[in-house]
Sequence to fold (476 residues):
Amino acid sequence: GVVESQNVKGGWKFNTANWNQVCWCGDLYAALAIYGEESKTDREITIDAICDALNGVTWSMSSYEPDGNYTEGPGYWGYGTGFNILLFGALNSALGTDFGRSDANGFLKSIHYYEHVFGTTGLAFNYPDSGGGKMFEASTFWYSLKLGNPNVAWNENNQINKAYLLEQGKLKNTKGTRSFASLVGDRLAVCALLWGPTFDQKYADALLDDFSNQSAPNELGYVGLGNGLCSVALFRTDWKESAAYLGIKCGTPQSPHGHMDEGGFVYDDLGVRWFVELGPEDYHKIESRGMNLWSVSQNSDRWKLLRYNNFGHSVPVINNALQLANQKTSFIETRIGNKGEESVAVIDLTPVYKNDVAKAIRKATLLPNGDLIIEDSFEALTDKSANIERRFITTAQIEVNDDAVVLTQPSPNDQSVTLKKIVKTQHSVGASFSVIPCETDEDYDAKNPGVSILIEKSTLEAGEKAVFTTTFATSK
Fold:
């Protein structure tokens, strides 16, 4: 129990990842369960355990500073943050105070990270080991009460109201809508009753006529640098489901649960996701093979996996090489546009490709009309050529013609209507597009059915420079 936990040499005690939050919460609950009933001999041990949990969780809470960014992505945000909030609740319930821990600046700002990490489709920007789909986290309602701001629970309120409309048979399009039975299956869903989601009949019925009647957050973007291990820029043109969204990241593959996905992104528009993240592999499947999933050294088994290396992300592959695991990339410019303005993120990718090029810069621009521009600038080393593959991971059907590349997906509202994105690319060197399935011949790799990789190939001679400007434009 509590006594034994103080003697275990656990790496979780002093790290900044989610397991620190989860385990200290468990230790605290165990200590509080016997607090006041233990013998005088054990009283000091119990108090020490409470103090240890109170202080130990500050390690993981430090990772939210200074701007609320959560290094491990939205899935682990729900896990770690949820148990952190349970820890606050236990302290307040048993002792009447959480000793100011819940007022930590970065921790409170983190809800803004979480509300923006979901696209206009409702799908998460599911990096690095986060699962895809529509998540439901009761923790958002704790933030809503704490900050006195119901808008921060936008995603969860959406799901509750849609589940109600689904149950009433009032939704025309039910694809992707989660039922109440699905929502209550989430880990801490019952806590939503404690923290109080907002709901009323008129509010729900208004969604039938105009989804925008729901009070949405005012901001159209969020940039979280955090501790620099995994930074994100999250942009949208509006909070409507038909609006466009871009989530793009940088940092290091050696961040907690990291992938070789520096420069990777997702893109929503017209109610569908055009470029996707594959998410994690099944941990048990990989570990049961005897593969070392958790080493992040350059030659680790982790980087053999398509879902973890740069071959399975919407990032460049240069000279058929992996990104450098021990290097760190960063934003050199970010700009969140107001309504009617473009949003921009520029990343210096050079560190993870420095063995193969002298410079690699990615600029992503989300235009007010929903079009996306990905501009990649490269400079080859003076003594080495660079074979470049610009990869884009998509569930769309891809048609490569001599003069155009067309991405096609069914409309989410009408299966008889198809949506198109025309790929327009400009470059100063010869380049060609091809399409391959998003899979390998290795039996440890997931097959990713329905997912393809659009590849633009080119070669830079030693010392040569090139800029590739690719626009993903809605077919008018």
Notes: Residues 225 and 454 are 29 Å apart (CA to CA). Confidence is low (pLDDT under 50) at residues 1-8, 206-213.
